User: Fold this.
Amino acid sequence: MKPAEQSAAARKICALAPIVPVIVVKDLAHAVPLAQALVKGGLPALEVTLRTPCALDAIRAMADVEGGVVGAGTLITPADVKAAKAAGAKFGVSPGATDTLVKACEDEGLPLLPGAVTASEVMALLEKGYDMLKFFPAATSGGAAAIKAIGGPLPQVTFCPTGGISLSNANDYLSLKNVACAGGSWVAPDQLVQAGDWVGIEALAREAAALPR
Ligand code: 3PG
Assistant:
């Protein structure tokens, strides 16, 4: 998969809803009902972080949830990419980008949302052909003001900011013309997941899905 195709695929995924839930699955039994609640609430694109022992099994289980588009987050190494693809991930997300990670995603045909926050990081990815990028950690990297400023000299790049975003500040990001969607864990909070409060999570998803952009 060529870089331009990778970014085109990532753009399509980012267009599905204003918010991509960032999910940490600690108990495999939670995977399917959690995905169902988020999709039912209007958030089809789901990022499952590879930070827990059952994350790959969770992706495998969630991949069959109707209407969902499940991706793998926290991709760091080529081995992560291979494992995510084998588990059925439809896209990958990384907090940053390295040559080996980017190449592994191209070789595996896994659309990648690579991370960048500085002009040089963005330019390095642009040079490779990537123009749909994650901006992480968003809040501590200058927030919406930084993304707006980067859009001055680099208007051809679109971002999905993640990190420190919630219902109350999402609009600061979503109202920017170089932001396609935002990522956040607030729609799948650990407390509600552990309690199995799928109705509560669906309500959070519905609120997030209604955010204007
Ligand atoms: C992450 O990778 O952990 C995401 O950026 C989620 O950040 P948040 O918990 O601040 O939404």
Notes: Strands lie at 19-23, 45-49, 69-73, 92-93, 112-113, 132-135, 158-161, 182-184. The chain has a mean pLDDT of 97.
